[in-house]
Design brief:
With 461 residues, the chain is of the alpha+beta class. It is 28% helix and 23% strand. It is globular and about 65 Å long. Flavin-adenine dinucleotide binds next to strand 3, helix 4 and strand 10. Belongs to the oxygen-dependent FAD-linked oxidoreductase family.
Length: 461
Amino acid sequence: MEPLTTATVPMSSYDPTAVLPGTVIRPGDASYDDARRLWNGMIDRRPALIVRCRDAQEVRAAVVAARARGLPVAVRGGGHNAAGLALCDDGLVIDLSQMRGVTVDPDARTARVEGGATWADVDAATQAHGLAVTGGAISTTGVGGLTLGGGIGWLMRRQGLACDNLVAAELVTADGHAVRASDHENPDLLWGLRGGGGNFGVVTAFTFRLQPLDGVVSGLLVHPLARAKEVLRFYREFTRSAPDTLTVFAGLLTSPEGAPICALIPSWCGPAEEAEAALRPLREFGPPLADLVQPMPYVAQQRLLDDGMAPSGFQVYWRGEFLRALTDETIDALVDAYAAATSPLSVLVIEQMGGAVARVPRDATAFPNRDAAFNLAMVGRWTDPAERDVHVRWVRDVHDAVRPSALGSYVNYLGVEEGADRVRGAYGDATYARLVALKNAWDPENVFRFNQNVAPNWRLA
Ligand SMILES: Cc1cc2nc3c(=O)[nH]c(=O)nc-3n(C[C@H](O)[C@H](O)[C@H](O)COP(=O)(O)OP(=O)(O)OC[C@H]3O[C@@H](n4cnc5c(N)ncnc54)[C@H](O)[C@@H]3O)c2cc1C
């Protein structure tokens, strides 16, 4: 790994005429509209400058140039954040999409991943060595935002969240410093980067711990929505005793043929010879209309839902909530809500938590929701911008219906219009207070505020 030197850029040296680094895209340029397009087609922000940086030095120069010009700064990783946090109006966007290199050290079982990489980049490089780290369930999601907010994925019950596997980070801070965070260097900062979002600077490289993984057994088990209430009750009981090597998500969605369905999506990452017995009850229940479960390479599993569940460009209104349990009332509310969904493109996804995620002490990282049994994503999706209100209302109604089982939110699943209270609530007072202290130390002027923002100088009432 190339060491970064810790260099100081005093405030007095900010040069307002500083030459911008990398490729600079401005309003009116042919590539401007492409460069400001995000996964969520509903987001329409117009930055003053988009700077495509190629390395940490260019990121430092971009931070310095933005501050010299008095411009707000946004950081773009994979551009998947549903609230559109990768962009700001009239500011400077540090676009990391050219920084996607992944270097694997197979002996140390680590991967150094540049700050703009996607999970597809990481999975391809690590699986070439038979290794893997927990990443998002959609391969096009950015490593940056996902890891900094926590990082839920298929391998988490075996090896923890993405952020639990983060062993070091290289960061450009609000003062233009290049610093490292690890257990030995700035360990408090590493704590904050494990769940505290992009609040402390631009992460130019993440180093992850890897574990061996040959392949997985995964795929969809498809049931009709008419049977979803009993399927989800079975799912709740089945997942209660599932081993750490098995993670099962459940989805209420509409098939490509237009039929509303309930899909169970298992992912087995344990020994291949034990998969059949572990998955049998799941595959026999119902029985399902279709059983598409089969052995596959991990990279195939990581792409399995890309097209069906997560194509880019739709109008999206997204909310999330950790659930302490899947009660009968919650199951009934979710199924009834999906039966009345205002758009066939909308989905409700239940993600099984627990296992290694729950064994990390609550104060060991800035990701606080270790006790959740499930995480729920409520995703309203449609094509015509004029229909926004009806679909937003549907998502809000689903959210209201599940509140009795809610434990708190996942910062990475907070949507547009969810403000500071929701961010504070997502962390809880103790974690939030510690994040504020860290923010005061590393970014007291809140230069990095287009994120699930931790407000400097906030005090517990
Ligand atoms: C289709 C889809 C599938 C998803 N699946 C999962 C999933 O399986 N598991 C899960 O946990 N989450 C999932 N998410 C949520 C995801 O974690 C968040 O949307 C996350 O913010 C995406 O990160 P990004 O880098 O792609 O986003 P961006 O929109 O680029 O960035 C999001 C935030 O992170 C900051 N950021 C990004 N990179 C850096 C960096 N290098 N340094 C500093 N700050 C940075 C940005 O400034 C912004 O505040 C999914 C989202 C979508 C849209």
